[in-house]
């Protein structure tokens, strides 16, 4: 009899822990983010951060990871103008967003990037150590933003030697 009780307690504990883990990963750490005061910025061919006009800005972020940032917006700028003004990024792959953040569908964005109906640009370099902000814009003016590890971030987080070309890693703020 006591074996059944222990088994039931273990099963209930596992269900509660599983539900809590699911909630924390999908909903718990994310917060809605207001539109930045300077707007969505992108790095120009001259290397300067320049804002672009945006509308319908929505974004989420989490303090638990520097790569959880996702944003959506619209812009009146054409891809031709943007490709002549801002730094293009090759092989950018959007990261999945939680299912409840409806405007950001990583598979659709990746398909548009692959088809050439969207282009990806450098939004900011090292927004966090080793993390760049990527901005993708489609032909019809829909824009998406996410964070992606750059070469220094990939090296730092997988444990290989970073090297002199990377900036110093900030001291931990405990």
Overview features:
single chain; 174 residues; alpha+beta; six-stranded antiparallel beta sheet; two-stranded antiparallel ribbon; kinase; membrane; Histidine kinase; transferase
Q: Could you please describe the fold and organization of this structure?
A:
This is Histidine kinase. The chain crosses the membrane at residues 6-24. With 174 residues, the chain is an alpha+beta fold. The protein is 30% helix and 29% strand. The protein has helices at 2-28, 79-85, 106-115, 151-158; strands spanning 31-33, 40-43, 49-52, 55-61, 70-74, 118-128, 131-138, 142-149. Strands 1-4-5-8-7-6 form a 6-stranded antiparallel β-sheet. A hairpin with a 3-residue loop joins strand 7 and strand 8 (142-149). It is globular. The mean pLDDT is 87.
């Amino acid at each position: 009899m006591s074996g059944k009780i222990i088994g039931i307690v273990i099963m209930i504990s596992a269900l509660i822990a599983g539900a809590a883990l699911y909630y924390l990963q999908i909903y718990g750490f994310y917060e809605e983010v207001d539109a930045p005061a300077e707007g969505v910025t992108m790095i120009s061919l001259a290397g300067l951060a320049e804002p672009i006009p945006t509308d319908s800005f929505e974004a989420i972020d989490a303090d638990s990871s520097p790569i959880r940032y996702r944003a959506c917006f619209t812009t009146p700028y054409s891809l031709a103008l943007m490709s002549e003004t801002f730094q293009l990024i090759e092989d950018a792959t959007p990261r999945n967003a939680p299912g409840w953040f409806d405007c950001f569908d990583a598979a659709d964005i990746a398909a548009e990037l692959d088809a050439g109906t969207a282009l990806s640009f450098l939004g900011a370099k090292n927004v966090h150590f080793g993390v760049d902000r990527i901005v993708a814009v489609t032909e019809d003016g829909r824009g998406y933003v996410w964070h992606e590890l750059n070469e220094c971030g990939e090296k730092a987080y997988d444990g290989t030697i970073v090297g002199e070309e990377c900036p110093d890693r900030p001291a931990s703020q405990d």
